[in-house]
Amino acid sequence: MASLKGTGVSPDSYVTVYWDTTSKDAYLMINNLPAPASDQQYQLWALLDGKPVDMGVFNYELRQEKLLVKAKNVQNAQAFAITLEPKGGSVNPPLEKMYVVGKL
Questions:
Q1: 3-state DSSP call for residue 11?
Q2: Per the count of CB atoms within 10 A, which of 65, 67, 82, 87 is most buried?
Q3: Of 47, 40, 45, whose CA–CA distance to 91 is shortest?
């Protein structure tokens, strides 16, 4: 489990990532994130040796429908982060858009 805490971009944000190290499944509990603009989505990243690995975008609205939101699998991670991106996501996360980050 990783507790992702808000950065200077969004200090009150908080997300919990549950990562099953056996199955490599990852689930998000969106505790507190601001609603994105209609043309944006949040994107989850695994961080390994300082390099980001895309774990997919997710719809903010799911937080009201489900307790946990499933993300892509990831083989290895030392930390997780969430950025705010244009719809569909980005190839590399810009640090100025990092809303939450946390180590395992």
A1: coil
A2: 82
A3: 45
- Gap between the Cα atoms of 44 and 27, Å rounded: 10
Q: Does residue 65 sit in helix, strand or coil? A: helix
| CA-to-CA separations, 39 to 35, 80, 87, in angstroms, rounded | 11, 23, 6
pLDDT confidence bin for 61, thresholds 50/70/90: confident
Under DSSP, is residue 96 helix (H, G, I), strand (E, B) or coil?
A: helix
CA distance 89 to 74: 17
Mean pLDDT, rounded, of the chain: 90
Tens-digit pLDDT profile for residues 15-60? 999 989 899 999 999 999 999 999 999 999 999 998 899 999 988 7
- 67 with 85: CB under 8 angstroms? no
pLDDT of residue 38: 92
How far apart CA 5 and CA 64 sit, in angstroms, is 20
- The partner residues of 30 in beta bridges, in order of sequence, read 15
